[in-house]
Design goal:
356 residues; alpha+beta; Aminopeptidase; six-stranded mixed β-sheet; 11 helices; 23 strands; binds zinc ion
């Protein structure tokens, strides 16, 4: 009897704990999900939501209007068509309740989970929308918070760092610009397009900086056409600490080596680091790590990316594609990796100086 009671209590306790975990499991617009206790922070401030977030297949959905109006998006909900249109600046996302296909700037995209309704509130996958708008999105395990825009201070402290003076580089913001792209090939030599070389090095650098806990944005991570202003605009909007634009050079056949370009003005200085100092750090690290010839740190006031960005910014010309032997090195993954390593070292050194 006693034993039966004990077993009953154990089972009851077990069921209660299961019940707590899955208490809110239900169908949302025909899709099974659970409500979530996760919090949402925008620009470092936690929001009061009219509905709890919903977790579907481990993807978090949030009330579209309350969350995305905070980043300046406009939301248009058409109930009779079950359609929500989210617009921000020049970007537009169209979703239909219960469907995983959506449109981003007119192109069809597939989401892992659809937008759903929760007691009449439109809920959308938070990461998908944030990434489509190129807004920083992250997750803090410790505080169960999804953050958009700016990282809350407590999240910055949680980020593990694996190198450098962690306190000075973690959570700092670096925009990586792969030069050219899409219809703009840049230099072309021996069948190699500059835009592809630039992107390959940019991706390697991006991975390395992320490992250090640095927040990165890439102006492009595919072969897309971008205006020069879109590049500096991304850095300005996100209040980046550094902008590093990756290019490769062309010149006389005999020219080889690395070169760094910068905009000569104190207006691009941030804290303890000027653009000129940033350029020198980049140049020294490229020449040392790659063993490349020092082609100098060059003032280029006319270049739009450098002129219109508000922070220390450089164009790193890794090597000369017009020189056959340098091109044969630039083509290799190993040399690209070395170039990314050089730029990573330069970023660490520059951030440490900036925040000294
Ligand atoms: Zn170029």
């Amino acid at each position: 009897m006693k034993r039966t009671l004990l077993v009953t209590i154990i089972i009851a306790t077990f069921l209660m704990s299961i019940g707590q975990t899955f208490a809110a499991g239900q169908y949302f617009s025909g899709v099974w999900g659970v409500t979530s206790a996760s919090k949402i922070a925008v620009s470092g401030l936690t929001l009061n939501l009219e509905r709890e977030p919903v977790s579907i297949n481990n993807r978090l959905l949030v009330p579209v209007r309350t969350v995305f109006s905070q980043i300046g998006a406009k939301i248009d909900w058409n109930e009779s068509r079950n359609r929500v249109v989210i617009t921000k600046d020049n970007d537009e996302i169209i979703m239909y309740i219960g469907y995983t296909n959506c449109y981003v700037n007119g192109a069809i995209k597939s989401m892992e989970v659809p937008a759903v309704l929760f007691n009449g509130t439109v809920m959308v996958p938070v990461r998908f929308v944030a990434e489509a708008f190129n807004v920083l999105v992250g997750w803090s395990e410790k505080s169960s918070t999804v953050y958009l825009g700016k990282m809350p201070q407590e999240v910055i402290e949680e980020i593990p760092a694996s190198g450098g003076n962690a306190s000075n580089i973690k959570g700092r913001i670096v925009v990586i610009d792969a030069g050219h792209g899409g219809t703009q090939t840049g230099a072309v030599y021996g069948g190699v397009k500059e835009k592809d070389l630039n992107l390959s090095i940019a991706k390697k650098l991006n991975a390395k900086l992320k490992e250090l806990g640095i927040v990165t944005y890439m102006t492009r991570n595919a072969d897309t056409t971008l205006s020069l202003y879109a590049r500096s605009d991304l850095a300005n909007r996100n209040n980046a600490d550094l902008l590093i634009s990756i290019h490769n050079n062309a010149g006389l056949l005999k020219h080889t080596g690395s070169m760094t370009l910068y905009y000569p003005s104190s207006s691009k200085t941030k804290r303890n680091l000027s653009s000129y100092e940033f350029a020198n750090i980049v140049q020294r690290n490229m020449c040392n790590t790659l063993g490349s010839k020092d082609m100098g740190v060059i003032e280029r006031p006319g270049l739009a990316v450098l002129r219109t960005s508000n922070m220390p910014a450089v164009i790193a010309e890794i090597g000369y594609m017009s020189n056959a032997s340098e091109l044969s090195k630039l083509k290799t993954s190993a040399y690209q990796e070395k170039a990314a390593e050089a730029l990573k070292k330069a970023v660490i050194e520059s951030l440490e100086k900036m925040y000294k």
